[in-house]
Design brief:
With about 400 residues, this protein is α/β, with parallel strands linked by helices. The chain folds into two domains: about 170 residues, Acetylglutamate kinase-like (Carbamate kinase, 3-Layer(aba) Sandwich); about 140 residues, VC0802-like (2-Layer Sandwich), CATH 3.30.2130.10. Strands 3-6-2-1-9-11-12-10 form an eight-stranded mixed sheet, with helices on both faces. Strand 14 and strand 15 form a beta hairpin. Helix 2 packs antiparallel against helix 3 and helix 5 runs parallel beside helix 7. The structure holds adenosine-5'-diphosphate, aspartic acid and magnesium ion. The site of aspartic acid has 13 residues, from helix 5.
Length: about 400
């Protein structure tokens, strides 16, 4: 039996916690013959490293930033291996490159191309516990790359897939996936099971308990995925395929604080204008999420859209360059996106109107709306973030 276990930032947040992880790994070694442990950087470390780079530049060279950020995970991996060895266990730590994780050269957001698991298999066959630094790989040119924020989850799933692991366990600081962030709504309920589809929506819409790309990959590779706490022995949440699930109407509420909005006023209302705006943004790799275009008037119209907060400046500048000085460009980073997710919505009506009514009753103005088969997303002012989450959690009776 082979298990891949991933321990997140808080779980390895200090030296004692890393030792706690070592003890848990040793215990698991009694159940599973082979263990591969993927670790994150100690909590706060990645942000600290980014701040250091920002001392020199607001937009540090991305190749060098990856070299820097990869150190966080390597530090934890080495410390965990040292701890395991000091306890008399045979262990080795590997960087992403040593573990064979090949990626594209999209620095700070590299995509996984392939894993050559020869080295890991060799170490396992020698009876070693293999500790791999998460969040990183290397490009064909040999340079170190990183996989985007929260990317250690993705590393874990990728190694589980490549090694054909029996199980991939994601250890974190909460007991599993809840109906909403338990730090915002203490009444949130832990879900025993959640479908890949719903988990993917929740993760993409801001529930950082699992990184969205990791869920996507787990689904694709059919990796058996469980999230649980590294601080207790409670059973966690199993991420499974939809068919096996009883379909709840709404399974969770997600909050994304990393949103900003741009509104373009009085742009020309003519064919091709939206195309030129969004092609410009796409060329700059800026991810556009919600889009609203008003009905035109006087040959002009207003267009609003959201982008990740760290792209706001970049996007505004690109719009100014494209549209010239006649168009009014407003930007606002004081917004959040709250979303209601549930596969049961596919077959029920009235789910959206319940959300709108509940927010209205609390005096929360909805600034933008977008819906799909299994989600409703709403942009509201950031001062209402927590209230909106708790209000929606209550209206769909997720607390009982
Ligand atoms: P790690 O460092 O272990 O990767 P993260 O901080 O990335 O952990 O993710 C865990 C956090 O995700 C929790 O502490 C919790 O605040 C947050 N979270 C947001 N939405 C949810 C949810 N629906 N269920 C559980 N946790 C959630
Ligand atoms: N350390 C990285 C981050 O903070 C990756 C991870 O923890 O998953 O984003
Ligand atoms: Mg995480």
């Amino acid at each position: 039996m082979l298990v891949v276990q991933k321990y997140g930032g808080t779980s390895v947040g200090n030296l004692e916690r890393i030792e706690n992880v070592a003890n848990r790994v040793i215990k698991s070694k009694k159940t599973y013959k082979d263990i591969v442990v993927v670790v994150s950087a100690m909590s706060g470390r990645t942000n600290q490293l980014i701040e250091n780079a920002n001392f020199y530049s607001e937009f540090p060279n991305k190749k060098e930033l990856d070299m820097l950020l990869s150190c966080g995970e390597r530090e934890t991996a080495a410390l965990l291996a040292i701890s395991l060895i000091s306890k008399g266990y045979n262990a080795i730590s590997l960087s992403g490159k040593e573990a064979g994780l090949l990626t594209t050269d999209d620095y700070t957001n590299a995509k996984i191309i392939d894993i050559d698991s020869t080295r890991i298999k060799k170490e396992l066959s020698e009876g070693k516990i293999v500790v791999v630094a998460g969040f990183q790989g290397y490009a064909a040119n040999g340079n170190t790359t990183t996989l985007g924020r929260g990317g250690s989850d993705l590393s874990a799933v990728a190694f589980a897939g490549a090694l054909n692991a029996d199980l991939c366990e994601i250890y974190t600081d909460v007991d599993g996936v809840y109906t909403t962030d338990p730090r915002i709504e203490p009444k949130a309920k832990k879900l025993d099971k959640v479908s890949y589809e719903e988990m993917l929506e929740l993760a993409s819409l801001g529930a950082k308990v699992l990184q969205n790309r990791s869920v996507e990959l787990a689904k694709k590779l059919n990796v058996k995925l469980v999230t649980r706490s590294s601080f207790n022995d409670n059973s966690g949440t199993i991420i499974t395929s939809e068919e096996k699930m009883e379909q709840a109407l709404v399974s969770g509420i997600a909050l994304d604080k990393n949103q900003a909005r741009i509104v373009l006023r009085r742009i020309e209302d003519k064919p091709g204008i939206a195309a030129s705006i969004f092609t410009t943004l796409a060329k700059k790799d800026i991810n556009v999420d919600m889009i609203i275009q008003n009905v035109g008037h006087d040959g002009t119209t207003n267009l609003g859209f959201t982008v990740p907060q760290n792209e706001l400046k970049n996007a505004s500048e690109a719009m100014r360059e494209l549209l010239g000085s006649d168009v009014v460009i407003e930007s606002d980073s004081d917004i959040v996106k709250v979303s209601v997710v549930g596969v049961g919505m596919k077959t029920h009506s009235g789910v959206a109107s319940a959300a709108f009514e509940a927010l209205a009753n609390e005096g929360i103005n909805i600034q933008m709306i977008s819906t799909s088969e299994i989600k409703i997303s709403m942009i509201v002012s950031s001062k209402y973030a927590e209230l909106a989450v708790r209000t929606l959690h209550k209206v769909y009776k997720l607390d009982n």
